[in-house]
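Per your request, structure below.
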């Protein structure tokens, strides 16, 4: 996704860079007006239309607006196309940034889980439990935010999981697994080490990778 977004952003930047010269070739008179740079104008609007059609479906509003603007053949209509391209660039940039944030989050969680496994192998169950539980809670709350569940950041983990189940985001079996980690989460994050078992941490570390991969978080 990052490569595709970057490719389109670069293409939009090239096209936007050609607008000033074509716009400067506009002339008007009592009978109307036109673009002295006929070749540049026609090449630009053709490429803009093709790019928008590649990014969107043919009946997308931006594609239809571009067709209408092309038919207008005026400086104003060319500026409409320029505005549509600027909007497209902003949307692509935001998508790219969101994708990068998600990837960074996934990479950090992978590091946390690897550290937790190493600690567990060294019989350091307590810090391993803290790392694993932080990853579980963060993943649940990010998943809730992704699906429009409001206030998830301040809710208890099992409540968030139940909300995800109600919306059909997770299955009943997944919710049951998450609920089974509630006591471990509470013990680990409140330093109640006698209630943290190596077995429960091992189970959580087995559950998390597939859960994270499935939901892309």
């Amino acid at each position: 996704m990052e490569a595709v977004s970057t490719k389109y952003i670069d293409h939009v930047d090239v096209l936007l860079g050609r607008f000033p010269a074509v716009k400067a070739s506009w002339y008007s008179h009592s009978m109307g007006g036109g673009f002295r740079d006929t070749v540049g104008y026609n090449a630009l609007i053709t490429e803009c239309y093709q790019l928008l059609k590649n990014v969107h479906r043919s009946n997308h509003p931006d594609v239809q607006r571009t067709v209408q603007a092309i038919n207008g053949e005026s400086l104003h209509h060319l500026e409409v196309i320029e505005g549509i391209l600027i909007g497209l660039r902003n949307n692509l940039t935001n998508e790219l940034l969101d994708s990068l944030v998600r990837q960074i989050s996934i990479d950090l969680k992978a590091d946390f889980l690897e550290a937790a496994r190493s600690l567990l192998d060294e019989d350091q169950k307590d810090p391993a439990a803290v790392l694993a539980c932080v990853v579980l809670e963060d993943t649940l709350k990010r998943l809730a935010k992704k699906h429009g569940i409001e206030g998830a950041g301040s809710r208890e983990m099992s409540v968030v999981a139940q909300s995800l189940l109600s919306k059909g985001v997770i299955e009943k079996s997944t919710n049951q697994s998450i609920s089974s980690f509630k006591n471990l989460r509470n013990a680990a994050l409140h330093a109640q080490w006698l209630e943290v078992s190596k077995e429960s941490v091992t189970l959580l570390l087995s559950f998390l990778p597939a859960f994270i991969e499935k939901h892309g978080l």
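The chain has two domains: 2-94, 123-215.

Regards,
D.
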